[in-house]
Design brief:
The protein is an alpha+beta fold. Strands 12, 13, 15, 16, 17, 18, 19, 20, 21 and 22 form a 10-stranded mixed beta sheet that branches. A 5-stranded mixed beta sheet has the order 5-9-8-7-6, with helices on one face. The longest helix has 17 residues, at about 90-105. It is flat.
């Protein structure tokens, strides 16, 4: 573990008073930011799982132990503004988080008792799982590697500058108050690193939005064998609880009931489930989940349906629960609609729909241990967005339940538009045969398999992004995109298919690829293609826009610019402007920029200066130069380059 220069805590001095309530309010309000701060300051050598748990533990222990704190160093920055920057309570808990995160990185010695922050946290604990933030892109990985090479104080200085936006003077005050011996040296090292403030706010460094994987299964099996006697006693008690009476045995893995009222009971009664008739969709003008019939061999299994409803209402501690961003996971407001109940790849699966969400309950065929409950938001889904739901994933493959109006299912590699599609077996109950899932693949991206569904109105492409609801792929102008299944759309999507990996597990509803410009490259470099991909989510926020650049003959597109929660490339603002530094075959560097077709002029300032009429700009540049792009639309409105 890397050694760090952290001095003992400084003695209290006179200063502003922070009471427990004020500090607690600041901690609760800014908890995600404080945990991110702790995660970034902690040494990466701890491993991502322990960093996550330690970051939460340190933040939760940041409150003052007494009713008030009179330590003047708890408010190191000048308190002149409102909100977080002007809150003494926030300044106090932030200092505690920085101080304990630095202590956690100190090496253990035989000469002194370890500090509490140096030991694995007692709480929180998640048994049987390893937790880690969502994976980011190459930029986030490179930043994490650079941060790991810094000392703890230098890492803290970099994060305080980039994430907290503190001035150098305020960073020095915080580091001094945290007990750093030489804060000036730490700040100098941090200042020497390239500023990448936007990356510090990415999902790669968010310990509040996590993925879960099992721990060492062989070691767990050995521990289980050592605890057989204790487990046997628990099994006997569980059997007694499952006897007829008021016990919760019939509810499977659900927790004990917490409410007894008519509405709650109706929502948990299998007899009250809505079951749409098989042919109802043929007489309806609707093409959404509300007209899906109840399908599967176990739709009459009342015990299974009761367990699914009970676990939805109150999942027990052993139930693995997941939900797409922006999706509530509470109990249904009333009796939901049954979409499917049957056996899928050694699991009993129940799909339910309450008008807002799809809920998937799954349990092993040999019991209820290891039950899982997944949620996806699907409000307003219709047409292609209501044509398939994930039933299960096994061995890198995925099975779907398709809408009753789907007549054919095929599998296609999005990266090979001319290779044709491979037929998938479609059972009478709408379940597809398994197909390779790109959401479960690791390593280099060499293929991207998508689901192609056909009905009486046409053919559509859907892709698995690790959630219950697959994302709908489209192509064309944002004001009226078409299906991505046409030959031209498939050719447009092929170089950019791998960019879909950047929006896994983000609650994505649809992704559109729009080829907004073609540009002749200087020095006889051929013709390049500019494509803007926009991922829209079910919740509305969290959209992600990528401007991508493909050189002639290139297999993959390169991300030139990206933005989140931007209207660019969307129906509300169908415009985009982006640029990239490009090296020609002669060794010369150029700034290549392109806007959408209604761009009247493009200009560059900063490290590269130049302008051009029309939507395309080519200017000689130096390697590593940075420029700011501005453009004017034909209606006179100005736009900025996508960042």
């Amino acid at each position: 573990m890397q050694s760090q220069d952290v001095a003992p805590r400084s003695a209290p001095s006179a200063g502003p008073v922070v009471d427990v309530e004020q500090a607690e309010a600041a901690l609760v309000e800014h908890y995600p930011r404080l945990v991110r701060l702790a995660y970034l300051v902690l040494p990466p050598s701890l491993g991502r799982n322990r960093r996550v748990l330690t970051a939460h533990a340190l933040t939760q222990r940041a409150l003052p132990r007494s009713r008030t704190s009179g330590d003047a160093t708890v408010i190191p920055a000048q308190q002149t503004g409102g909100g977080r920057d002007g809150d003494p309570g926030y300044a106090f808990v932030r200092l505690q988080v920085v101080r304990t995160a630095l202590e956690a990185g100190l090496p253990l010695t035989l000469r002194a008792w370890p500090k509490r922050s140096q030991l694995p946290p007692l709480l929180p604990q998640v048994w049987g799982l390893r937790l880690f933030p969502r994976s980011g892109g190459a930029d986030e990985l490179a930043l994490d590697q650079r941060l790991s090479a810094l000392s703890g104080p230098a890492r803290a200085a970099y994060v305080l500058r980039g994430l907290e936006k503190l001035s150098e003077a305020d960073v020095l005050k915080v580091l001094t108050a945290a007990g750093v011996d030489d804060p000036g040296a730490a700040l100098a090292v941090a200042a020497g690193m390239e500023a990448q403030d936007s990356l510090l706010g990415s999902a790669e460094f968010d310990p509040c939005s996590l993925h879960a994987r099992p721990t060492d299964l062989m070691r767990r099996r050995q521990h289980v064998k050592a605890a057989i006697a204790a487990t046997a006693a628990v099994v006997v008690c569980g059997a007694l609880l499952g006897l007829p009476g008021d016990g919760w045995g019939p509810d499977g893995a659900a927790a004990p009931p917490y409410a007894q009222n008519p509405a709650a009971q109706a929502a948990l009664d299998p007899a009250q489930l809505t079951k749409v008739a098989a042919g109802a969709w043929q007489a309806s003008a609707r093409t959404d989940f509300s007209v899906w019939p109840a399908r599967g061999a176990l739709t009459g299994d009342s015990a299974l349906l009761r367990r699914a409803l009970a676990v939805w209402a109150r999942p027990g501690e052993s139930v693995a629960v997941s939900a797409t961003p922006g999706t509530p996971s509470g109990a249904p407001p009333g009796p939901p609609q049954l979409l499917y109940a049957g056996v899928v790849d050694q699991a009993r699966v129940v799909l339910l729909y309450d008008g807002l969400r799809i809920a998937r309950y799954a349990e092993p065929t040999d019991g209820t241990n290891g039950a899982a409950l997944d949620f996806a938001r699907v409000d307003g889904a219709k047409g292609a967005e209501a044509e398939a739901v994930v039933l299960g994933r096994t061995d890198g493959n995925v099975r779907y339940l398709t809408a009753p109006w789907v007549t054919k299912a095929t599998e296609r590699d999005l990266m090979k538009p001319s290779s044709g599609a491979m037929d998938l077996a479609l059972a009478a109950d709408g379940v597809t045969s398994p197909l390779a899932s790109p959401a479960q693949r690791s390593g280099a991206c060499t293929s991207w398999n998508v689901l192609e569904l056909t009905d009486n109105s046409g053919t559509r492409l859907l892709t698995d992004l690790g959630e219950l609801a697959p994302a709908h792929l489209t192509s064309g102008q944002p004001s009226g995109p078409g299906e991505a299944s046409s030959a031209e759309a498939l050719r447009n999507w092929a170089p950019f298919a791998c960019s879909l990996a950047s929006v896994r597990s983000q609650g994505v509803r649809s992704v559109n690829a729009w080829q907004y410009a073609r540009q002749d490259l200087p020095d006889a470099g051929g013709s390049a293609t500019w494509v803007c991909t926009r991922a829209d989510t079910w919740r509305g926020g969290g959209t992600r826009v990528l401007a991508q650049f493909q050189t002639p003959g290139g297999t993959y597109g390169a991300v030139a610019a990206k933005a989140e929660n931007s209207p660019a490339c969307g129906s509300r603002d169908p415009h985009v402007l982006a640029g990239v530094l490009w090296k020609s075959g002669t060794g010369s560097w150029y700034l290549i920029a392109a806007g959408s077709r209604d761009t009247a002029s493009v200009g560059a300032t900063g490290g590269v200066t130049g302008s051009a009429q029309g939507s395309l700009l080519t200017v000689r540049a130096e390697q590593g130069a940075q420029a700011e792009l501005k453009g004017s639309l034909e209606d006179g409105r100005e736009i900025s380059g996508l960042r």
